[in-house]
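Co-fold these.
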Amino acid sequence: MNNPCGQHQHPHRLIQQPLDELTDRLRRHSRRVTGPRQAILDVLRRHQTPMSNRDIHAALGQMCDLATVYRNLHTLEGMGLVRRFDLGDGAARFELVTPEDDGHHHHLVCTRCSLVVEIDDCFPPEFEQALAQRHRFARISHRLEFFGVCSRCEAGESRPGPVEA
Amino acid sequence: MNNPCGQHQHPHRLIQQPLDELTDRLRRHSRRVTGPRQAILDVLRRHQTPMSNRDIHAALGQMCDLATVYRNLHTLEGMGLVRRFDLGDGAARFELVTPEDDGHHHHLVCTRCSLVVEIDDCFPPEFEQALAQRHRFARISHRLEFFGVCSRCEAGESRPGPVEA
DNA sequence: ACATGATTGCAAACAGGTTGCAAGAACCAC
DNA sequence: GTGGTTCTTGCAACCTGTTTGCAATCATGT
Ligand SMILES: [Mn+2]
Ligand SMILES: [Mn+2]
Ligand SMILES: [Zn+2]
Ligand SMILES: [Zn+2]
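Predicted complex below.
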């Protein structure tokens, strides 16, 4: 296994982008800088693990309707400002993405307490290329998530709700 | 990348288990051999790619209620007769599993026509082990699916419905 | 300040999936 | 075979995550 991003060794998502930079990106895409949008971006930039629409809406505290959160994340995803992840429970999760980085990475999820650990490693791109060639697929990509039981849960103290394996 | 199952080189899922063997497995788990169950198992054994509840129900043709399909797939999964897969669209898919094999494998999905290709390769288990140790997770496993555009779709003739990337 | 179109709140609609309940089988024992 | 016990099924209601139509509101360029 290697690190797919040769540019830098540190985890991308720990870099906290300034809010202004984010709203600038909105303007550049001729999107309006509204209260909900700033708030959503602000919530996302201070979280390092992916958040669900519900998570974000809760963190916003009655700032806007849940539908607005859904709509905005969809918009932000289309603009490449956030990336969508699927951690196996039915809900989509989102993480902020920096302009230099496409945000491709993986997660290790505790199936008992839903703790999420960020994983930067990935298998070498050659493998994916080989698959693509062998099956004549173009524009190939992948989704990879790990599941297990975190040390705290394994030790006994399960807490919140579980997730599927 | 290697083949995780050193036992045999051929794709597991191409082996078509006899229906009697499957119903025997039901009996051994003290489950009743009902019409819907036999029909579901029979549909699954003649498909090599994962099927959704809806797929199965459709293939059954008014043999039983959709809720019955859901309930049975859940039961069969609990018994280890089928394995659940998540191909990124909102619907769960299932494949028959042989007694010797846990059915762990991956898929390559066309994001345009939803064509599914079975993939037997996987990364070496050492990588997963290392992750587990590094983050002190127990009972670690993973889910990995590939996405791309199949040659036919790339050539132009898109057909049915798309899937997310 | 105004005009205009993007954005929002709200409620209704969807989609996959689950569940309570009464009727209908399997299966086991006679 | 007959009968009973227990598991299954059909049906409809329900649940959760997500989308959408529509009228009201607001951000932005002039
Ligand atoms: Mn992440
Ligand atoms: Mn498969
Ligand atoms: Zn945990
Ligand atoms: Zn295709």
